[in-house]
Write a structure and sequence with these properties.
Blueprint: H1 6-12, H2 28-39, H3 63-67, H4 76-88
Length: 89
């Protein structure tokens, strides 16, 4: 990302934003279970089924990111663990 200039992005590529992510989709439930496991939460996750489910798919399109020769090096699990461990030290 250090090699991308805003004028190039906007003027030449006609883009205003770059989605940064892995391009791998997961459900909110899967994310919640992953966080639960990483932080060692022993309780149950409660879901309010009276609320709408929201958008079924929230996967980011990372094609532009990949076209700029950038790919993720850290998995979501590794990132969550790193951030969590930083705050519990």
């Amino acid at each position: 990302m250090e090699n991308v200039e805003a004028p190039t992005l906007y003027d030449e590529m006609q883009q205003t934003h770059i989605n940064i992510g892995t391009g791998i989709d997961l459900t909110i439930k899967d994310l919640a279970e992953t966080v639960k496991e990483i932080v060692g939460f022993k309780g149950e996750i409660e879901w309010d089924s009276t609320k709408p489910d929201g958008t079924p798919k929230k996967q980011l399109d990372v094609n532009l990111l990949n076209a700029l020769n950038w790919n993720h090096r850290i998995s979501l699990d590794e990132g969550i663990k790193a951030v969590y461990n930083k705050y519990v030290e």
